[in-house]
Specification:
Shape: elongated
Number of domains: 1
Radius of gyration: 26 Å
Structural class: mainly beta
CATH architecture: Beta Barrel
Number of strands: 17
Order of helices and strands: HEEEEEEEEEEEEEEEEE
Helix content: under 10%
Strand content: over 45%
Largest sheet: 10 strands, antiparallel, barrel
Strand order of the largest sheet: 3-6-7-9-11-12-13-15-16-17
Number of helices: 1
Oligomer: single chain
CATH topology: Lipocalin
CATH class: Mainly Beta
């Protein structure tokens, strides 16, 4: 029994809400298969994940085409230019404790991820614009864009390990989740005069957004044990975060700072739902009866809904449209976990 519990705990993510029956209590589900909360030994688990992720957020920083006032009359041919995030490394660390006798556990985790990317375009003419703002014509013939996003997240959850037969383990869990999501979008616009051929910065744009929220989290880990060493594992979870959203943006449309306009949006209370899912293959190696290690390779997807505020000027008089975009990322991960009873 002790070996079975060690294997089951190794292949689930060990985050977890204390519910289900006492050890050994049988619960009959509609199929007639026995769902059991097995006996357990007190076990510490230490996990470390290397995340290799790409964000799905783009920043549209310029448009190119025959849109200048100097262009000949006729249909405009415009192509939007966007910055996409590069693949970047992140890290997730967690610690869990399985209480003896009940197969209930407590887990705490921390995740850090920084996503960034840049892009540039050149050509004549070039129309420049900011997020949700009418385009304005200029003599720019080169533009650069930059995006930077940082996630700091933490969870505290409680869970219950249950088994269905000898092949399937279930681990429902619940608790709290915290997230801090900072984003920054920048664009700079240049022009190059034929004589003397010097390049001048003629405008720039920058927007920032910061969300900090906390709320309930719940989900379930599952495992299908192929044999004593290999298992197919998966997690599906979600959270509902409530917190403060603040943002600002500024434009500089001239050669001097006197043309710069800075807009500070009022902060407000935002509700940000979050969903995450992962699937992977787990390998368990037992050093002895009290110590084991898991190696897990899988793929993960995370989405924080409307977690970035892109509220910018969208008319020449006042701002009338509030806009927000998701902060989401996906990619492979490699997990190492040490279990000590």
């Amino acid at each position: 029994m002790r070996k079975t519990i060690t294997i089951a705990l190794g292949i689930i993510g060990l985050s977890a809400t204390a519910f289900a029956g006492e050890p050994g209590n049988n619960m009959v589900i509609p199929t007639g298969t026995l769902l059991i909360a097995p006996d357990s030994t007190g076990t510490w688990s230490f996990g470390l994940e290397a995340l290799y992720m790409m964000s799905n957020t783009n920043f549209q920083y310029a448009s190119t085409g025959n849109v200048s006032l100097l262009a000949p009359p006729g249909p405009a041919d415009v192509e939007n230019q966007s910055v996409t995030n590069d693949w970047n490394w992140g890290v997730e660390a967690d610690i869990s404790y399985l209480f003896p006798g009940s197969s209930r556990d407590i887990s705490a985790s921390y995740t850090y991820l920084n996503q960034n990317g840049d892009d540039s375009v050149s050509g004549a003419p070039l129309t420049v614009h900011g997020v949700n703002r009418p385009t304005f014509t200029t003599f720019a013939n080169e533009a650069t864009g930059d995006v930077d996003q940082t996630l700091n997240a933490a969870t505290l959850t409680f869970g219950q390990l249950m088994t269905i037969g000898n092949r399937i383990s279930l681990h429902p869990f619940g608790g709290l989740q915290f997230a801090d999501i900072d984003t920054s979008n920048k664009a700079v616009y240049y022009t190059e005069f034929p004589d003397p051929g010097d390049e001048f910065e003629i405008g720039n744009y920058k927007s920032t957004s910061d969300f900090e929220g906390i709320g309930p989290r719940a989900g379930i880990d599952t495992a299908i044990h192929l044999n004593q060493s290999f298992s197919i594992v998966g997690t599906f979870a979600g959270a509902l975060l409530v917190g403060n959203m603040s943002s600002n943006f500024d434009y500089n449309r001239g050669f001097t700072p006197s043309f710069e306009t800075d807009y500070n949006n009022d902060s407000y209370t935002a509700v940000v739902p979050e969903l995450d899912a992962k699937v992977g293959l787990d390998y368990l190696y037992a050093f002895n009866s009290a110590t084991s290690m898991n190696i897990q390779l899988g793929y993960e997807f995370v989405d924080y809904f409307n977690a970035e505020d892109n509220d910018a000027r969208d008319s020449w008089a006042v701002n009338s449209v509030n806009t927000a975009t998701d902060f989401s990322y996906n990619g492979p991960y490699l997990r190492l976990q040490l279990n000590v009873a």
